[in-house]
Amino acid sequence: MTTLPAYEPPVDENELLLKWIRRARESQMSHYDMADLLSARDRWIGWLVTALTAFVGTAAFAALTLTAISIEMRVFVGIVSVTAVVSAALQTFLRYAERAEKHRAAGARYGAVRRRLEAVFAGDPDARDGHYLTAIRDELDRLAEDSPNVPPHIFYRTQRTLSRDTPRSRDA
């Protein structure tokens, strides 16, 4: 289990911006990590369904041409056929591809907010209007409400990866 350091609220505007930048980056990367995981699961089940249905189709065709098929082979083909149907149903029910896309979109939105926060922190005069903190806070709140949940183990893994300060392709 991961223990988090004690929470210390920011004491000034720059510290607040740095905390928001860190949180936005962690959220961005954890959503991208979750999207990658769900996409991999979707591909794995897709390959399984494809292979199993190809086997069942071939076995059914062979059964039409051969009259003497052993009972063991019939049972095996039946089991593979049921496994193919269950796999296809799981792929539809779990909606990995759809969920992955929602996480990718959330990651992109967190990335946009993070870049805006970095521009504010860097002193970009165009990024600082009269109510920029309120606008950014509102956007972060909307993102937190609208984004799908990332399981804690994925979020903590992402935090550990980011704490090693390794460059990531999606860090821009």
UniProtKB/TrEMBL annotation:
Family matches, as InterPro entries: SLATT_4
Q: Name one Pfam family in it.
A: SLATT_4
Q: Which residues cross the membrane?
A: 44-69, 75-94
Give the keywords, sorted: Membrane, Transmembrane, Transmembrane helix
The segment(s) forming the SMODS and SLOG-associating 2TM effector domain are 28-142
Domain of life, per lineage: Bacteria
* NCBIfam families for this protein: SLATT_4
- UniProt-recorded name of the protein: SLATT domain-containing protein
Q: Which organism is it from?
A: Paraburkholderia panacisoli
